[in-house]
Amino acid sequence: MYRPLSDHERSLSSRLLDAHKALISLDNSRPAPNGQIIGSYVRIDRGNPTVSDLCTSNLGAFRSMWPGLLQSAACPSPNETDRKPPHLQVAFTHGMVCGTDADIACGTPGSRIDLTLSRASYVVREVTISKKVPIVVHVLGDVGSPQRYDLTSVLLHEIGHFLGIDHFNPAQRPARFPAALLGIYKDDFCLSPTEIMMMNSRADETWPYALRVQHGLRRRR
Fold first, then answer.
1. Coil vs helix vs strand at 46
2. 119, 134, 161, 167, 182 from 172: Cα distances, Å
3. Where are the alpha helices (DSSP H) in 103-219?
4. Would strands 121-126 and 135-141 be described as parallel, antiparallel, or unpaired?
5. Does the reported pTM lie above 0.70?
C-alpha cells in the first residue's frame, strides 16, 4: 500500500484509489499465503511527503474509510503540542489493590500500576547455559506463599490496562489459545493476535473502546 501512496507525481485521490485496490486485491495482486494482504510495515517519519499530503488534504468520501483512520493516527491533532506523554508509576503494597483482596494487581489507564505483596510470591524464570529448563526465582512478595505469579506476566497484563486495553473476552478466546488480558491469572499468559490488534487500534486517540477506569487481575483459583 505504501508504494502507490508514495507516488507523488499523481494526485492523492488517485493514490488512495490504487492503495484501496491493493487492499481488496482488485489490482490482480496475489494475496499472501496466510491471508494477510499487508505482509510488512514501512516506518516513515511524520515529515515524510506522503504523511504531509495525507495530513493537509481533505479526504472527502475517504474520510469514513481506512484513509480517515490513517489520518487520525498519523497526523498531529491541534492540541497535541500541549499533551504530555503518560508517566507510568509502579507501586507495591501490602494492602488491597483495586479495592478488593481478590486481585493481585490493578492498572489505572494512563496513570499507574499497583501490585499487592500480600499472599503472593512473584517469580521470574531464568534459563542458564548448563540447564535448558527454566529456573524459577522468587523476587518479590511473600516467599512462603503457595500462590506464585510470574512477574513479567502480571506486569504485561497491567501495562495493557495502563495503555487503555480492557479485559479480553473469554468467549472470543479459542481453546488453549494464550492471552495476556484475561481477567483471572493464567500461567500461559502471552499476547494474542487480537490483543496486538487492540493495542494498534489504541494508538488512535479517538478509539471508542479505550478503557477509562482501573481494572485488576484476579488471583489464581
1. coil
2. 31, 31, 19, 11, 11
3. 151-163, 193-202
4. antiparallel
5. no
Q: What is the C-alpha separation between 146 and 105, in angstroms, rounded? A: 17
**Length reported for the chain:** 221
Q: pLDDT digits over 126-183, tens only?
A: 876 666 777 889 999 999 999 999 999 999 999 999 999 999 876 766 566 778 898 9
As a whole number of angstroms, the distance between CA 161 and CA 165 comes to 5
**Residues 6+ away with beta carbon under 8 Å from 61:** none
Q: Which three cell numbers stand for residue 123?
A: 517469580
CA 133 to chain CA centroid, Å, is: 30
The residue type at 173 = R
Q: Cα–Cα distance between 43 and 51 in angstroms, integer?
A: 11
Name the helix (H) or strand (E) containing 24: none
Give whole-number Cα distances, 103 to 9, 106, 170, in Å: 58, 7, 18
**Using one digit for the tens of pLDDT, what is the confidence trace for 11-67?**
888 888 888 887 776 545 554 444 334 444 566 777 788 888 888 888 888 888 888
Is 168 buried (19+), middle (13-18) or exposed (0-12) by CB count in 10 A? Answer: buried
Phi, psi of 9 (to 5 degrees): -80, -10
Question: In terms of C-beta density within 10 A (0-12 exposed, 13-18 middle, 19 or more buried), how is residue 38 classed?
Answer: exposed
Grid cell 510470591 in the structure block, residue: 121
| Integer Cα distance of 130 and 86 in angstroms | 42
Give dist(CA 211, CA 195) in Å, integer.
Answer: 13
